[in-house]
Amino acid sequence: MHELTMAQELIRIVEDEQLRHGFEKVEVVKIKAGGFSGIDRHALDFAFQVVREGTCAAQARLELNIEPVKIVCRSCGFSMSARDAASSCPLCKSLDIALEGDSSFEIVALEVD
Ligand SMILES: [Zn+2]
Fold this sequence. Notes:
Elements: H1 2-21, E1 26-33, H2 41-51, E2 61-66, E3 70-73, E4 79-81, E5 97-100, E6 105-112
Parallel strand pairs: 1-2
Antiparallel strand pairs: 1-6, 3-4, 3-5
Helix pairs in contact: 1-2
Bound molecules: zinc ion (ZN).
């Protein structure tokens, strides 16, 4: 299960940070994920609730920010949300467009106590 691995990785990073900075507990874990990361928000929430037990993040809330996949025109560089599902560039009418996104997954901030 993809999300369980991610949640375990989150806790590992959080505990690393705790060792380094010596905070008592984590209140919010802010995460940024790429549009192609394929994260299921609810599955990650659930997995996180399981793995955080007994750690400094036991009460923590996950704030997951998934960046939207974009459509980018290779001719003029125009970009738009992939939700618009265009088949050509609305600006220059080029058909040379591509989906753009990444599969990154990282903690961008921890709010600690
Ligand atoms: Zn264009």
